[in-house]
Recover the amino acids of this structure.
């Protein structure tokens, strides 16, 4: 599976949201819409909904994606998704390799 970058993930989530052009969203409101949509469907669910729309209504879906990409390029990335350090992006919840954690009570001790 291909890893999404932050802007692509934001576009996919907005595409799957109920946001409409007539809503004329303020830039600050987009982060809330994206978060709510990802919590509701997960990033894979958002991508699935987007793929279905491109299959069912390709012209309308292409127009919606152009509008969404314009919104995203005009809206700065929220501080929570900016790189934590130069060259590195924080993980997108629900997407990418899962972090492994040691089982409870089985931590290693330093010798």
């Amino acid at each position: 599976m291909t890893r999404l970058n932050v802007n692509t993930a934001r576009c996919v989530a907005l595409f799957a949201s109920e946001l409409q052009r007539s809503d004329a969203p303020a830039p600050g409101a987009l982060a809330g819409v994206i978060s709510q949509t990802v919590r509701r469907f997960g990033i894979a669910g958002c991508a699935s909904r987007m793929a279905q729309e491109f299959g069912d209504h390709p012209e309308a879906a292409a127009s919606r994606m152009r509008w969404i990409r314009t919104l995203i390029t005009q809206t700065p990335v929220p501080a929570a998704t900016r790189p934590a350090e130069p060259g590195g992006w924080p993980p997108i919840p629900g997407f990418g390799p899962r972090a492994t954690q040691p089982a409870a009570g089985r931590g290693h001790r330093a010798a």
Notes: Confidence is low (pLDDT under 50) at residues 81-89, 95-111. The CA atoms of residues 79 and 86 lie 14 Å apart. The longest helix spans residues 27-56. Residues 6-80 form one domain.
